[in-house]
Write a structure and sequence with these properties.
alpha+beta; five-stranded mixed beta sheet; 15% helix; binds manganese (II) ion
């Protein structure tokens, strides 16, 4: 057994819908601008320019339930509802026709974004990490195995803040499909079991405030509800 000089940090993981075992997380890949309506609202041409990616650290993934903390350093804390793909197998240079063989299951996540920091990063040609990869920035539902939900390629995706429908789209409107995204990422390096892919958000992104109740889902996959916590609360809650 490997001995460590300090206790090793806990393995990031998510519950699964079918049993007590958890889904261990290796990496979190996120796809930028993958629905035309969102590309347009971010001021970009939605033509099929090649997909692009960013990461969130694995330990930013939390349950999309209970209270999600309002993060520091922002006054534009935005929601982005997304289908999440959970890989049970890996590979390099995977053909689109073979890509779905890698998928263990699907969940529904929210790519939480400090939009003001992202806007500043874009303006100054700096990295996006501080705007995307902060603590608790990747809420996700339990992972539903392919056995139970198949490989969804159409169906409503939506998000509400309180009673207002803010985001609504359909998986069939993904600019780059799930197999195409898996294949494209696998040209850049190895995909591996435990990888999550946040596949991009439809139009309608916008801000949330402390106390807001955020709910959403993908028809036929999963739904969630959480509440935004007060600003400045540490994640541990033991202030
Ligand atoms: Mn996103």
């Amino acid at each position: 057994m490997t001995q460590y000089v300090i206790p090793p940090p806990p393995r990031a993981s998510l519950p699964v819908s079918t049993g007590p075992e958890r889904f261990p997380i290796r990496r979190v890949f996120c796809v930028g601008r993958n629905y035309a309506a969102h590309a347009r609202e971010m001021g970009k041409d939605p033509d099929r320019e090649p997909p692009f990616y960013f990461y969130k650290p694995a330990d930013t993934v939390i349950d999309a339930a209970g209270t999600v903390p309002y993060p520091p350093l922002t006054s534009a804390f935005h929601h982005e509802i997304e289908l999440v793909v959970a890989l049970g197998a890996g590979g390099r240079d995977v053909a689109p026709a073979d890509a779905l063989d890698l998928v263990w299951g699907y969940g529904v996540g929210v790519d939480l974004t400090r939009r003001d920091l992202q806007d500043e990063a874009k303006k100054s040609s700096r990295p996006w990490d501080w705007s995307k990869g902060f603590d608790a920035s990747a809420p996700c539902t339990p992972i539903h195995p392919v056995d139970t939900v198949g490989h969804p390629d159409s169906g409503e995706i939506w998000l509400r803040v309180n009673d207002d429908l803010k985001q609504q789209g359909d998986l069939k409107d993904l600019i780059w499909s799930v197999p195409e995204v898996i294949s494209a990422i696998s040209t850049a390096g190895d995909l591996a079991p435990g990888d999550l892919i946040y596949t991009g958000t439809p139009g309608g992104v916008g801000p949330m405030q402390p106390g807001d109740v955020v709910s959403g889902g993908v028809r036929g996959v999963a739904e969630f509800t959480f509440t935004i916590g007060g600003a400045g609360q540490p994640l541990s809650g033991d202030q």
